[in-house]
Amino acid sequence: MSTERRAQGRLAVALMLALPLLNGCLWHTHKVAQVKMPQNVQSAPPEQLVETINKSYDAINTMSATVTFTATEGGSLKGKETTYTSFSGYILLRKPEALRVIGFLPVVHTRAFDMASDGGAFRLWIPPKNKVVEGSNAITKPSPNALENMRPFIFFDSLLIRKIGSNDLLLVTTDSPTVMNPKTKKLEFQPEYLLTVLNRQGGGNVLMARRVIHFSRLDLRPVEEDIYGPDGQVQTQAVYGRLQTFGTAQFPGSITIKWPLQEQQILITFQKLVLNQPLNDEQFQLTIPEGTPVQKLP
């Protein structure tokens, strides 16, 4: 045996003999909040998650809702957060792309905004500012004005999670973020499936996330959808509240639409909801008072 190996052996023996004498000096143990896993965690194959989304989308052709809007802006980037007074409104939706969203000012109950879209272009009338905004449904340049960012596709894609096609590239993973249970005031794991819909960039080997749908593994229900832009950043998040019964249908009682990059969000709380009643073309047409200035958006 070489001199170097004999030295290494003696060092190892010395360390083993010394460790009991150092017990308690090399580490410190302290208590941390214990997180519990819910008891009824469910499992499902990817095909079942896709079927859940597609069935829900196919089940709704039109929507007529009385809602309350609550807007919030600010966060950690701005260093402050402001929540504005809630105001009432209406939402009309008809597949494939027709949408009408109307909001009323608090107290006086006159129109704060009125937006209508046929799916390709939209008009947004803002009476308090005496102006009209027109443009395409897609956002090419975000505006610091939250109202101008309320493009129809954001509402449409948040109200109805779009179908997943047979040719879509999918990735399914799991996650277990921790949340505070409002009843027990204790931390709990919130196990989820994350169903990612991917795009292949330019026909090559690079895949980009187009959207990520979060499913609660307690009831296998979608609880959030993250919609990504072409730069790989989350443009819109839709967070779905607990299911409520409206007539014979079940639908989330609230939907929070977030724009994380702009630190803006709108909470939509449903007061009344009617699904699949006939809606005519006139209900999606916006008549603008003559002489109102029009701002064109890209």
What does this molecule look like?
The protein has one domain: Clam (outer membrane lipoprotein receptor (LolB), chain A), CATH 2.50.20. It is built from 3 helices and 19 strands. It has helices at 3-18, 46-58, 152-159; strands at 62-75, 80-83, 87-94, 98-104, 111-117, 121-126, 131-136, 169-175, 178-180, 187-189, 192-200, 207-216, 222-228, 234-240, 243-246, 249-252, 254-259, 264-275, 294-296. The protein has a 15-stranded mixed beta sheet that branches. A hairpin with a 5-residue loop joins strand 13 (222-228) and strand 14 (234-240). The chain is elongated. The N and C termini lie far apart (79 Å). The mean pLDDT is 87.
Largest sheet: 15 strands, mixed
Taking the alpha carbons of the first and last residues, their distance comes to 79 Å
Mean pLDDT over the full residue set? 87
Under CATH, the topology can be stated as: outer membrane lipoprotein receptor (LolB), chain A
Beta-strand segment tally = 19
Radius of gyration, CA atoms, in whole angstroms: 26 Å
- Binned, the helix content reads 10-25%
- What string, H for helix and E for strand, traces the elements in order? HHEEEEEEEHEEEEEEEEEEEE
What would you say about this model in short?
The chain has helices at residues 3-18, 46-58, 152-159; strands spanning 62-75, 80-83, 87-94, 98-104, 111-117, 121-126, 131-136, 169-175, 178-180, 187-189, 192-200, 207-216, 222-228, 234-240, 243-246, 249-252, 254-259, 264-275, 294-296.
